[in-house]
Design a protein that fits this description.
The chain is of the alpha+beta class. It contains ten helices and six strands. The longest helix has 21 residues.
């Protein structure tokens, strides 16, 4: 099926985020309000008030699911998980394994949530979405901002004591998230969605130059910003998790695999094996979504059986303790 978007509140499959040179340019998110602990933003952190819509396949949505788990916010923030495979109307809710129907708005399609917030909405229908059940609107649909809110503004509601944005590392974390966004997080998409050889080669070259760089960094320290787990690691993790199963083949990011990078591979295994992260990972949703939904890249919709990857294999990151 074709990817789609809303134009003045109407669904269309005339979706295109490439420029004339064949480069993929991601459309900015539209909902950028902020939840604060004290409510000064107009949206106060409160148990049961907010509902998170995610896809287990999407790396951007996966970030928010991980933060919700790491902070122990499962009882405070509601959750719905869309079906792994896009429908002709985009993301939809189902009773399929791994999916959770919409208990907040009882919608069939995610686009209904966007139209509740803005009946004339123009833009892509993306996950994650953070919904305010009190004001009946979308607070935010930008993953980086949602994970920051969960990390810093929901501490009074959190049942697990973890700080992924410590004061001493704030600038370094922000700089690192900025540094990995375009070449790595978005770089796999810039490679896979490119429609010219030049655009593809530019993106994939930059991607692997940056993976090579971080391979060196992780040979000297345990995590991206030092020896402490931070938001930057979560932003990197969700891309790396999908790399060998999807991006390597589906997006033609096939210069090297994660398993070919000793430090990145062991770093990936350590994060995957974290007791709050592992339950959020679903390779079945990931593979079926990319290979079955993006028919402009994989028109047969055949999902590869492999590769066999053992994310539970022992890692070596304890050497930095």
């Amino acid at each position: 099926m074709a990817l789609g978007m809303m134009v003045d509140g109407k669904w269309t499959t005339d979706w295109n985020e490439r420029d004339d040179s064949g480069k993929f340019n991601r459309t900015p998110t539209k909902f950028r309000d902020r939840i604060t602990a004290d409510g000064s933003s107009g949206f106060q952190a409160a148990s049961g008030r907010y509902h998170l819509y995610v896809s287990l396949a999407c790396p951007w949505a996966h970030r928010t699911l991980i933060l919700r788990s790491l902070k122990g916010l499962e009882d405070a923030v509601g959750l719905s998980i869309v079906d792994a495979v896009l429908s002709d109307k985009g993301w939809f809710f189902s009773d399929a394994p791994g999916a959770i129907p919409d208990s907040a708005n009882h919608a069939e399609y995610l686009q209904e949530i966007y139209l509740k917030a803005d009946s004339k909405y123009t833009g892509r229908i993306t996950v994650p979405v953070l919904w305010d059940t009190e004001k009946k609107t979308i607070v935010n649909n930008e993953s980086r901002e949602i994970i920051r809110m969960f990390d810093t503004e929901f501490n009074d509601l959190a049942t697990l004591d973890i700080d992924l944005y410590p004061e001493a590392l704030k600038q370094r974390i922000d700089d690192t998230i900025d540094k990995i966004y375009m070449p790595v997080n978005n770089g796999v998409y810039r490679s896979g969605f490119a429609t010219s050889q030049e655009a593809y080669e530019e993106a994939v070259t930059e991607l692997f130059e940056n993976l090579d760089y971080w391979e060196t960094v992780l040979g000297q320290q345990r995590y991206l910003c030092g020896n402490q787990l931070t938001e930057a690691d979560i932003c990197m993790f969700t891309t790396l998790l999908r790399f060998d199963s999807v991006y390597y083949s589906h997006f033609k990011c096939n210069v090297r695999r994660m398993v070919d990078y000793p430090n990145l591979w062991n770093y990936l295994k350590e994060l995957y094996q974290h007791p709050q992260i592992k339950p959020t990972c679903n390779l079945d949703h990931i593979k079926r979504h990319y290979y079955m939904s993006q028919t402009q890249i994989n028109p047969t919709r055949i999902v590869p059986v492999g590769p066999e990857i053992d994310f539970d294999e022992k890692h070596d990151r304890d050497r930095f303790n």
